[in-house]
Amino acid sequence: LADILSVQEARERILSILQPVETEWVSIDNCAGRILAGEISASADLPGFANSSMDGFAVISADTSGASWTAPANLNVIEDIPAGKTPVHEIEAGQAARIMTGAMLPLGADAVIPVEDTNISSLMPPGQADSGLPASVAIYRPARPGAYIRTPGQDVRKGQALLPKNRRLLPQDIGILAMTGHGQVQVFRKPRVALFSSGDELVQPGQPLMPGKIYDSNQYALAAMLAQGGAEILHLGNSPDDPGRIQSLLDRGIEQKADLIVTSAGVSVGAFDFVRQVIEANGKLDFWKVNMRPGKPLAFGLYRGVPLIGLPGNPVSAFIGCHLFAVPAVAKLAGRAQLLPKRMKAILSEPIESDGRESYLRAVVEGDNCRLVARLTGHQGSGNLYSLVQANALLIVPSGVKSLPSDSEVDFWFLDGE
Ligand code: AMP
Ligand code: MG
Question: Which helix (H) or strand (E) is 175 found in, with range?
């Protein structure tokens, strides 16, 4: 059994035994936030054909040279090309076609004149239908070749890599999947995380609170965080401090084929801390202490072969432990490339203290005159969850550092940071 580990060592031990889960095909209307199982490349150019970026007239640019308000170029209008239609005629000298935004450019044309630069009003009286295709159009301005034409491949070239494997799908990615004709996409299945909280003092929210009892907040906060991290949550409920009951909940997680089990409380050195004991009796405990603050008691092991992260009970410790270990574990299982939020640097607006363990302090980081400035939120006790509600960031004080003066630089990451 390992002695106390650094945060990084502990995380490496957890991540090193986890492998991404299987993949599945899902519809693109249900794939936001899912992790791509393979690279997506363009099967065709985008745009796929030359088209107009304005409502106007497709012309031969040379026909418009020298055109002005007083000496317009008069062209015969031979065709109407709404979006979605294939032009029938080729434009020849002295001719134009009326063309709408997104419609295919006719052969022969090499420019589009916006309707605003012609004698044809773009504005129809409300409720009135289009007055029909005019026989001719007066052009008031010359066009340079290529004007208002979206060329094929302007955005994306056929064969170009668009989305890398292991990317978490964003709304714009889903747009490009649709734009390239993908109705379904292969992603990693959501890892199943079995979650329960333990403690004789716990009461479920909505129930009356008797003296000495508290509401079980961990189960809900952790479930939300893990679900946001891409997990499917198997809610195992809560258990009193009783080894038999704890074991039967863990077994239920095994039956439900959990990829990871996350528990809260019962991993410390208290007389009623049984979670650790149950893992030791039925599996293998790898470590149970991490050199961090808050949340030193943090257990990791295998329960009947399934990885288990035993978070401490204090709500802030549980939250930060989940953020530092369980969320990256879910990310690894889910096939994500990026396992941790990006570290950034801010300037401290006040001095901070630590006890020399790697510390995660709740803070607000805000922009101030082109710098990011950090201040702590409230009392940093490990049970004080409200200080996390007020925070948008965690400051990271390295181990061995006991204090940092005001105006010094501190590492941090945003709580909702990617
Ligand atoms: P323990 O890890 O069991 O020693 O618990 C440490 C602290 O966390 C105690 O104050 C517990 O009452 C509290 N605690 C344990 N579990 C929860 C929970 N699910 N929700 C809120 N607080 C909890
Ligand atoms: Mg307890």
Answer: helix 171-179
Encode pLDDT of 252-280 as tens digits: 999 999 999 999 999 888 888 899 999 99
User: How close is the Cα of 198 to the center of ligand 2, in Å?
Assistant: 7
Backbone angles phi, psi at 386, to 5 degrees: -65, -30
90 CA → ligand 1 middle, Å: 77
Q: In 274-291, which positions are buried (b, 16+ CB within 10 angstroms) versus exposed (e)?
A: bbbebbeeebebbbbbbb
Q: Give the pLDDT mean for 354-382.
A: 95
Between the alpha carbon of residue 258 and those of residues 228, 307, 383, the distances in Å are 17, 9, 29
pLDDT band at 127 (very low <50, low <70, confident <90, very high): low
Question: Structure pTM?
Answer: 0.91
Q: Which residues contact 363 (CB under 8 A, 6 or more apart)?
A: 374, 375, 376, 377, 391, 392, 393, 394, 395, 412
Q: What is the mean pLDDT of the chain?
A: 95
- Using one digit for the tens of pLDDT, what is the confidence trace for 128-187? 556 689 999 999 999 999 999 999 999 999 999 999 999 999 999 999 999 999 999 999
Query: Closest Cα to atom 6, ligand 1: which residue?
Result: 313
- Specify the pLDDT at position 126: 56
Distance, in Å, from the CA atom of 266 to the CA atom of 246, rounded to the nearest integer, reads: 10
Bridge partners (DSSP) listed for residue 399: none
Rounded to an integer, what distance in angstroms lies between the CA atom of residue 16 and that of residue 202? 34
Residues in CB range of 309: below 8 A, 6 or more apart? 14, 260, 261, 262, 263, 298, 299, 300, 321, 322, 325, 326, 329
**Pocket around ligand 1: residues whose beta carbon is below 6 Å from it?**
197, 199, 201-202, 214, 216-219, 264-266, 268, 270, 273, 312-315, 383
